[in-house]
Amino acid sequence: MSAVIELSNLTKTYGKSRGVTDINLEVPEGMVFGFLGPNGAGKSTTINMLMNFTHPTSGSIRVFGKDTIKHGLDIRKDIGFLASDMALDGGLTGWQQLEYFANLHGKFDKKYIVELCKRLDCNLNHKTKTLSRGNKQKVALISALMHKPKLLLLDEPTSGLDPLIQAEFNKIILEHKTAGRTTFISSHVLSEIQELCDRVAFIRQGKIIANKTLDEIAEGSPKEIRVICTDKSLVTRIKRLTGIKHMKVSGKHITFSYAGPVNDLTHLFGMYNLEDLTIQEAELESAFMQYYEDDNGVGNA
Q1: Domain that residue 265 falls in
Q2: 53 in any annotated domain
Q3: pTM for the whole thing?
Q4: Angle at which helices 133-145 and 110-120 pack, to 10 degrees?
Q5: How far apart are CA 212 and CA 234, in angstroms?
Q6: Which residue stretches of the chain are H helix?
Q7: Dihedral of CA 173/179/184/190: which sign?
Q8: How far is CA 60 from CA 7, 126, 173, 193, in A?
């Protein structure tokens, strides 16, 4: 598969302030790619450079094989973009807003817009200044989706949406993937990333610290263990294992995270008469906390 996004030694500095440093990243065609990190990690800075809103201090960005600085206007015709703080003209109705955006990129498929409105439960007849946060988000999402772009760049796409609409949005993104198109999502909703994405890059303090498939993340992340046993000596034996974290004991109920060898764990449990045992693969949230558990939070970026 050809790479739709190619970032090579991408660096952006703001005077003495950090932006991003030496980012190397490729997103193949047809992939749903997740971009994760806490506030201030460099997610929005990277997306702004992808859209050519700001230029890198050094390094290069290619989208569809073209340099974003030299061919920015041409590239953006095939991108559907949603900013985390998408601005709409409050004096326009949803329809008028979409017509305005359509005139900018030259495509207006009314039939498809109506379909999106039904699926996202969006009424386009009201002025956007009268809409709730969630309904404004629906208009912004439709503006990104309506021309069936080759690449979707989405920053916090489900912010303000209720769970039913989030689920429908996920279906739309997977249909976009089935059609061979590419999606790049930055989100704080880890369950959304886990459900949609083929691969995830983690960014911390302006640097990519991991770039893995969801399967690779699951393999390398701690498993969640829940065991019920009346023999209290099991607790002492568990504590001796390597890779034990977040252990809690309530009567005969024992829960903990485990990142050690599975054989060591099963061998230990085989020595006891257990009432119940659950071994659950790690959620993306566990991996996220593993990468960022030492962070104390920083400003927006």
Answers
A1: 222-281
A2: yes
A3: 0.79
A4: 140
A5: 35
A6: 43-50, 72-76, 94-105, 110-120, 133-145, 163-178, 190-196, 214-220, 233-239, 262-269, 284-292
A7: positive
A8: 6, 42, 28, 26
Reading the block at residue 238, the tokens are 């568990």
Question: Residues 82, 230: one domain?
Answer: no
Shared domain check, 133 and 55: yes
Distance, in Å, from the CA atom of 36 to the CA atom of 295, rounded to the nearest integer, reads: 14
Picking from 159, 201, 147, 151, the residue whose alpha carbon sits closest to that of residue 180 is: 151
Looking at residue 226, which CATH number applies to its domain? 3.30.70.260
Is residue 288 helix, strand or coil? helix
DSSP for 21-89, written as a single string = EEEEEEEETT-EEEEE--TTSSHHHHHHHHTTSS--SEEEEEETTEETTTSHHHHHTTEEEE-TT----
Q: What is the pLDDT along the chain (301 residues), one digit of tens a residue?
A: 689 999 999 999 988 777 899 999 999 999 999 998 888 889 999 999 999 999 999 999 999 999 999 999 899 999 999 998 888 999 999 999 999 988 887 777 889 999 999 999 999 999 999 999 999 999 999 999 999 999 999 999 988 899 999 999 999 999 999 999 999 999 877 778 888 999 999 998 899 998 989 888 777 677 889 999 999 999 999 999 988 988 999 999 999 988 888 899 999 999 999 999 998 866 666 667 666 665 554 433 4
Single out the residue of 156, 94, 152 nearest to residue 125, CA to CA.
Answer: 94
